[in-house]
Design brief:
Length: 344
């Protein structure tokens, strides 16, 4: 029998944590013992994993050693990773972190398995592998095959990001505001997850603003893309929160060093790992958030040449932010790590 691992999920009750649990089940991940961890508020509650009840434990620094954790998937926020990831690494676990805390640390590999799996081998330096931002993952899966073929020099991207990107409470805020709208009480509705009402609105701000006028979310797309692709690509992002629950969409404008043909680009992308082309204009078919929920692939459509420049391409990219943008990528990293460490 192949090797099984003791796996901890830090943030097991959250939007991303719950998705990780489902994907571990679906993938038949080799789990010897599951250790679901959350705050003291959730400790003692149960989650179901592979049809068995498992008790949630409170996250403490000692728990990784006590439970002999070998793989620790963190998705409980940057401050929690800052405080607790080192204890997991010290206990001998590989930490796969979904938060932004370690991403730009030069000693920590930042990995999209379809793009830079070889970087995983650097994990031993700190014990940590970082998962990129949700918007970065789906974009980079779609641009890498085109960069390989045509040498990408610049990306301009506008995002349409679902409320679940800000966690469960943000999804609840949208639902409550819509209920308030139908009760004619929207003007009294509260907003905490976002700076403005999100129902029937779009908000051109995700995360805080930085000194250069861009938000932290936008700068994550810039800096993470360069780190993952090992290339100094020009990138400008406008990240927008929209009133959907799940599935991020992105309109991309790509500029290449050489001329590019939309038909050839579509063909190349159709062969790329975990990319699905949805691009039939006669049938009005293109990627949409409502069609990507619960899927582990990234959907690409509206692939077309620029009407002025032959070295430019436009396309629309959609993926389930909780899966492709977080949980699926984390589990794929874990699977690749097992393969590279030759445990299987
Ligand atoms: N949502 C996305 O699309 C997405 C994508 C990529 C990365 N991420 C990142 O993943 C992280 C989690 O996001 P989320 O959307 O899953 O958030 P969420 O739905 O708000 O869930 C937060 C999780 O963290 C746990 N937690 C909070 N405080 C804790 C503490 N003091 N000790 C232990 N556990 C604690 C919560 O447990 P309780 O239920 O006990 O409070 C819950 O399980 C964030 O850093 C986020 O930036 C999210």
């Amino acid at each position: 029998m192949s090797r099984e691992f003791n796996v901890a999920i830090v943030g097991a009750t959250g939007a991303v944590g719950e998705e990780i649990l489902r994907i571990l089940e679906e993938e038949n991940f080799p789990v010897a013992k599951l250790v679901p961890l959350a705050s003291a508020k959730s400790a003692g509650n149960k989650i179901t994993f592979n049809e068995k009840d498992v008790v949630i434990k409170e996250l403490t620094k000692d728990i990784f050693e006590a439970e002999k954790v070998e793989i620790a998937l963190f998705s409980a926020g940057g401050s929690i990773s800052a405080e607790f990831a080192q204890s997991a690494a010290d206990a001998g676990a590989v930490v796969i972190d979904n938060t932004s805390h370690f991403r730009m640390n030069a000693d920590v590999p930042l990995v999209v398995p379809e793009v830079n799996p070889e970087d995983i081998k650097e994990w031993k330096t700190t014990g940590v592998i970082a998962n990129p931002n949700c918007s970065t993952i789906q974009m980079i899966q779609a641009i890498k095959p085109l960069d390989d073929a045509y040498d990408l020099v610049r990306v301009d991207v506008s995002t349409y990001q679902a409320t679940s990107g800000a966690g469960k409470s943000a999804m609840e805020e949208l639902v409550t505001q819509m209920q308030d709208f139908f009760s004619f009480k929207l003007d009294e509705s509260k907003h905490e997850a976002f700076n403005h009402q999100i129902a029937l609105n779009v908000i051109p701000q995700i995360d805080d603003f930085t000194d250069n006028g861009y938000t932290k979310e936008e700068m994550k797309m810039v800096n993470e893309t360069k780190k993952i692709m090992h290339k100094d690509i020009e990138l400008s992002a406008t990240c927008v929160r929209v009133p959907t629950l799940r599935g991020h969409a992105e309109a991309l404008t790509l500029t290449f060093d050489s001329d590019v043909d939309a038909h050839k680009a579509r063909e190349l992308l159709s062969k790329a790992p975990n990319i699905v082309i949805v691009d039939d204009l006669e049938k009005n078919e293109y990627p949409m958030p409502a069609a990507c929920i619960d899927k582990n692939e990234t959907f690409v459509g509206r692939i077309r040449n620029d009407t002025y420049r032959e070295n430019m391409l436009h396309m629309f990219v959609v993926a389930d932010n909780l899966r492709v943008g977080a949980a699926t990528n984390a589990v794929r990293i874990a699977q690749k790590w097992i393969e590279m460490e030759e445990y299987n």
